[in-house]
From TrEMBL:
<feature type="domain" description="DHHA1">
    <location>
        <begin position="141"/>
        <end position="212"/>
    </location>
</feature>
<dbReference type="GO" id="GO:0003676">
    <property type="term" value="F:nucleic acid binding"/>
</dbReference>
<keyword id="KW-0436">Ligase</keyword>
<protein>
    <submittedName>
        <fullName>Alanyl-tRNA synthetase</fullName>
    </submittedName>
</protein>
<dbReference type="InterPro" id="IPR003156">
    <property type="entry name" value="DHHA1_dom"/>
</dbReference>
<keyword id="KW-0030">Aminoacyl-tRNA synthetase</keyword>
<dbReference type="Pfam" id="PF02272">
    <property type="entry name" value="DHHA1"/>
</dbReference>
<dbReference type="GO" id="GO:0004812">
    <property type="term" value="F:aminoacyl-tRNA ligase activity"/>
</dbReference>
Length: 220
């Protein structure tokens, strides 16, 4: 169940990034033609009107400026900034696609977690950040018999969710994981967050998982 939610969260993120890339690509296409024109207008050759100025609709620059909420002379910088943003979104999308494929394949090959008895699940988001860990852990709060530990190696953060039918404390578990990784954590009985050394968090989470299995009888 937890892995299914993980796959769903990753898929939603990937779809959102696709939509963002498409949106910015359309904006880029609309104003790209005005880039050369605006540069030439900013520094024309004396006594010479560039061919593109003569043959390109001058209103393109004004339309681009209106679209970007900028002055015409600011359009080149805005276009460059937009192009950088599109490239960053495309890179992020590629990374998330790879991560989604890896997690989907891992989930397909793994045994489903036991949900009718106390259990603990550890999820490591290799490129994730705190917001990703929090979102996944909050979704896991619906698992009343589960302890879910999510580590995000992207920024060295973690989030812990504890089901309402358990006597474990999320803040205590998060603190145990974080301190083992040289960090700290805080929160409440059902939800907590923290952080530590990114390269140590996943191993620390697995150590706590094994302890809960051995000492408290949790299925792992």
């Amino acid at each position: 169940m937890t892995m299914s939610r993980n796959r769903f969260q990753t898929l939603v993120l990937a779809l959102a990034l696709v939509a963002a890339v498409v949106y910015y690509r359309r904006r880029e296409q609309t104003i790209r033609e005005s880039l050369t024109l605006s540069q030439q207008w900013a520094a024309p050759q004396e006594g010479h009107t560039p061919e593109s100025v003569a043959t390109t609709d001058p209103s393109a620059l004004e339309r681009a400026a209106t679209l970007l909420n900028a002055r015409p002379e600011e359009v080149p910088d805005r276009v460059e900034s937009l192009d950088t943003k599109v490239r960053e979104l495309t890179s992020t999308l590629d990374k998330n696609r790879s991560a989604w494929v890896a997690r989907w394949w891992a989930a397909r090959r793994s045994e489903p977690p036991a949900t009718d008895e106390p259990h603990v699940t550890v999820i490591d988001l290799s490129d994730g950040v705190l917001e990703d860990a929090e979102a996944l852990a909050k979704a896991a709060l619906t698992d009343s018999l589960g302890v879910t530990i999510v580590t995000a190696s992207g920024d060295g953060s973690l989030a812990v969710a504890v089901g309402s039918d358990l006597d474990q404390q999320a803040d205590e578990i998060a603190r145990e994981v974080a301190q083992a990784a040289g960090g700290g954590a805080g929160g409440g009985a059902e939800f907590a967050t923290g952080g530590g050394e990114a390269e140590q968090l996943a191993d620390a989470a697995e150590t706590v998982r094994d302890r809960l299995g051995a000492e408290a009888g949790f299925a792992v």
